[in-house]
Amino acid sequence: MGIIKDDVLNKYNNFISELKKEIEELEHKPNQELKEKINNVKKKVELIKSEFLKGIVSQLLRELSKTEPSNKKEFGQEINKFKEIIENDIRKITQKIEKKERELKYRFNFDLSIKFLPDTPGKLHILTIVQKNLMNVFAELGFEIIDGIEIEDEYHNFEALNIPADHPARDMWDTFYFSGGILRTHTSNMQIRILKTRKPPIKAISLGKCYRRDNMDATHSFQFHQLEGFSIDEKINFLDLVRTLYKFVHKYFGPNTKVNFVPSYFPFTEPSAEMSISCFYCSGQKNDCSVCKGSGWIEILGCGMINPIVLKNVDIDPEKFSGFAFGMGIERIAMLKYKIPDIRMFYQNYVEFNQLWR
Ligand code: DAH
Fold it and tell me: 3-class DSSP state for residue 68?
């Protein structure tokens, strides 16, 4: 018989084997449960320290001092061995627990059971929505909708529109050149493309992507969208242009919106104008309005009477026919209408942004 009683040894062994089982069960536990279990094991380790290491071992040492001198060496070794076993167990368990804690810290917090797709049906992109609405409005006003091309040549993008190679306006319409042609800088190319195969009377819009050699910022992008519209017939005059755009504005921005034309310059129209609409947010009432900047007016498009030079370029007799044209940036319209502060938001595939619009 040694100094350590069997029931003490059994008690310790049972305690440790229960604890080892608990530690094994830590595998594959979800985060919250794992945290709780780790804390339980830690508490039990403290219990081993206080109950067995301090309590029982010091009691055994006290007993040792009272035993026969002849037994002291053997009993002493027995106690030391027991102490070593306990210390060893504590060390191993602590290592395991620390490992689990590290794991917990770096674990992904993914809940793979999340029902993602059924809860978030897809929506049209806001630029698609705006384009569809614009098409509807112009269709109601009697305009045909004609598809356009984005890969162009210099002739259709510039020269035919009365922008010769040395024209200063080429600067602001600078684009991407490659061996097969250029990327169109505006949808005005479609005036030429359409009029080469179709003869007046014609009333059409064409919309789509355009490209410019612009750096990205809040209002510029190297790729954006435009809508071009034009109408050619005998005796088309500036009043037809004003009347058409007036109707468009009322239908799209609301019946109380006012329009204002100021003279401008575009090589392909003569005379040319820029059209502004009254601010549909503050009606000019707020000095700090983020949309009109307090002026009460928002510039939305360029327009004018088609330059006779352009008509001649597509073999239409300017003595017999006249026409008007207009062009607007779709992003700009969308930004104004929906108060979107930065053009880059359209292109970032930011799901929350895309989900905002119906
Ligand atoms: N193409 C012009 C631009 O990109 C927009 C424009 C202005 C189109 C006046 C027109 C027009 O048809 O008449 O800035």
Answer: coil
Phi/psi of residue 299, nearest 5 degrees: -75, 130
> Using CA atoms, how far apart are residues 227 and 330, in angstroms rounded to an integer?
7
Q: Which of 150, 326, 331 to mutate to test the pocket of ligand 1 (most atoms within 8 A of CB)?
A: 326
Domains: count for the chain: 2
- Answer whether 293's CB lies under 8 Å from 271's CB: no
Residues 6 or more apart whose CB falls under 8 angstroms from that of 151 comprise: 180, 181, 182, 183, 184
Q: Which amino acid residue places its CA nearest to atom 6 of ligand 1?
A: 327
**Cα separation, 310 vs 160, whole angstroms:** 6
- CATH code for the domain of 20: 1.20.58
Atom 2 of ligand 1, residue of closest alpha carbon:
327
**269 in contact with ligand 1, CB cutoff 6 A:** yes
The C-alpha atoms of residue 150 and residue 185 are separated, in whole angstroms, by: 9
Q: Determine whether the shortest distance from the Cβ of 143 to ligand 1 is under 6 A.
A: no
- Separation of alpha carbons 219 and 331, rounded Å: 9
Q: Is the dihedral of CA 32, 33, 36, 38 positive or negative?
A: negative
Q: Is 325 in the pocket of ligand 1 (CB under 6 A)?
A: yes
pTM reported for the whole predicted model: 0.69
Domain extent at residue 260: 126-356
**What is the CB neighbour count within 10 angstroms for residue 187?**
24
Is residue 112 in some structural domain? no
| Residue 245 CB less than 6 A away from ligand 1 | no
pLDDT along the chain (358 residues), means of 10: 85 92 83 86 93 88 87 89 93 92 75 62 90 98 97 97 93 91 97 96 98 92 97 98 98 94 97 95 86 90 98 98 98 92 91 82
Ligand 1 pocket residue status of 327, Cβ below 6 Å: yes
211 CA from centroid of ligand 1 (Å): 14
Q: Is residue 117 part of a domain?
A: no
